[in-house]
Amino acid sequence: MSSKKHVILAGGLVGLLAVLLVHFGNPANMGFCIACFIRDIAGGLGLHRAGVVQYIRPEIIGMGLGAWLMAMGSGDFRVRGGSSPFTRFILGFFVMIGALVFLGCPLRMVLRLAGGDLTAILGLVGFTAGILLGIVFLNKGFTLKRTYSLNKAEGFLFPAMKIAFFILLVVAPSFIFFSESGPGSMRAPVALALIAGLLVGFAGQRTRMCTVGGIRDLIMFKDAHLISGFAAIFVIALLGNIITGNFNLGFDGQPVAHNDGLWNFLGMALAGLGSVLLGGCPLRQVILSAEGNIDSVITFLGLLVGAAFAHNFGLASSAAGATANGKTAVIIGLIVVAAIGFLNMDRSADVTMKGDVKVGA
Amino acid sequence: MALNTVDARGRACPEPVVLTRKALEQYPQGVQVLLDNATSRDNVRRFAESRNYKVALSEQGEDFVLTITK
Predict the structure, then answer these.
(1) How many CA atoms lie within 13 A of A27 on its CB side?
(2) What span, in angstroms and rounded, lies between the C-alpha atoms of A57 and A70?
């Protein structure tokens, strides 16, 4: 059971750890960024060759393993899959494109705001707009159809992949790329990053913390449960940034960010819409993957491949702003994701209602 | 009393809550909801309780049954 108090505590923990990770070496306002870290992993594995964003981020390894251990211990580890896997892959792909045009996943968007980065405001507005459009689809019966039980062994592959990443990180064979300059070279110590990831994995599994779920539930059900965690991340990270001297209010010269308002808006609109249709933000997808949700594992792979494409095709933004290719990709993404929303509306959703059937004893 | 049943097994959040909301609009006296994961179980329970319904939980094998009544 997760009460609102637990969600707030978990959010506060994420905010605190994010500030610590930046203080001990992570790029500014990037204590956690699921999109950026998966992008770094794609680079570390050589799936893209953008030299400044290559590293096997221990935070992601920790989150996956932490959530897996917690799910095993609590009985929440249930291996399921089969809910429109390829659609989820494509949605994951475009969520990553949107996030890398904005320069951050929804979690980093909150952390950027907490660091005084006012360029993230239009990101938040776009994110909310994307969620609103997604809610229209949900209310009209959008569904990616049900999942089915799978063998337990299937569910162990995701944590095993995390262990493989960890071995590659520690052994660092010559075919693995680690940035020597740029954001990929800015790293908190491995042990700290790993432990921080584990703690977020524990807390995320227990509380089902989710940034997109926060705004979605508030609008759809007037339920402030998840958004209270969102708010706690912001408040604690804001206080922490002020204390550690990492708070810089303004629009210009913000770290790993650009001030191209329209594309901050549209990038996050794409990430928000895609995430709502997926049922959770990138952070939540990592946690669900560890709980045995194979559809989320496919989404994770979509995010990873999306990150590789984003850097191979020059889609990701830089401090100079969004690229022409990136803008084109966001437009294509919005069309594809909206079409997925439209084509998966099941108007017969109420056939699941069986009149006067009594179930159980 | 036999209640109408919503089969939300295998559905990812927030679909089970959407289905439950729809069912309660149609049958305001109450419904039973079949679920197969803890997240949906807790979300549907929280939703029903926020609308002042009483919620009873039972388990059927791997599935959860929430009985939602006035």
Answers:
(1) 24
(2) 21
ipTM: 0.92
- Among the residues of chain A, which ranges form H helices? 4-23, 34-44, 58-74, 85-102, 106-114, 120-139, 152-171, 190-207, 211-221, 225-244, 261-278, 282-290, 294-312, 324-343
Task: Examine residue A353 and state whether it is found in any structural domain, yes or no.
Answer: no
Whether the link from the prior residue into A159 is cis, omega within 30° of 0, is no
**B34: distance to nearest CA of chain A, Å?**
9
Contact B25/A at CB under 8 A: no
Instruction: Convert the pLDDT of each residue in A214-234 to its tens digit.
Output: 999 999 999 999 999 999 999
Sign of CA pseudo-dihedral A112, A10, A53, A244: positive
Q: Which tokens go with A70?
A: 């917690």
Residue of A nearest to B41 (CA): A1
Q: Tokens 């946690």 map to which residue?
A: A287
Q: DSSP assignment of A151-169, as one string?
A: -HHHHHHHHHHHHHHHHHH
Q: Specify the range with the lowest mean pLDDT, choosing from A47-51, A63-67, B60-64.
A: B60-64
Q: Is residue A247 part of a domain?
A: yes
Chain A residues with CB under 8 Å of B63 CB are none
A266's CB contacts (< 8 A; 6+ apart) are A98, A101, A126, A327, A330, A331, A334
Q: Is B13 a catalytic residue?
A: yes
Instruction: Using an 8 Å CB-CB cutoff, list chain B residues near A148.
Output: 10
pLDDT in tens, B19-44: 999 999 999 999 999 999 989 999 99
- How many structural domains does chain A have? 1
Domains of chain B in sequence order: 4-69 (3.30.110.40)
Interchain pair B42, A2: CB under 8 A = yes
CB contact set of A217 (below 8 Å; sequence gap of 6+): A223, A224, A225, A226, A227, B14
With cut-offs at 50, 70 and 90, classify the pLDDT of residue B62. confident
Region A142-166: mean pLDDT is: 97
Q: Is the model's pLDDT at A361 over the cut of 80?
A: no
Q: Are B34 and A357 in contact (CB under 8 A)?
A: no
Subunit contact B15:A143, Cβ cutoff 8 A: yes
CA-angle at B69, arms to A76 and A5, nearest 5°: 45
Is residue A261 within 8 Å of residue A123, measured between CB atoms? no
Domain-embedded: residue A93? yes
Indicate which of B43, B49, B69 best probes the interface with A, i.e. most A CBs within 10 Å of its own CB.
B43
Q: How far apart are CA A293 and CA A29, in angstroms?
A: 30
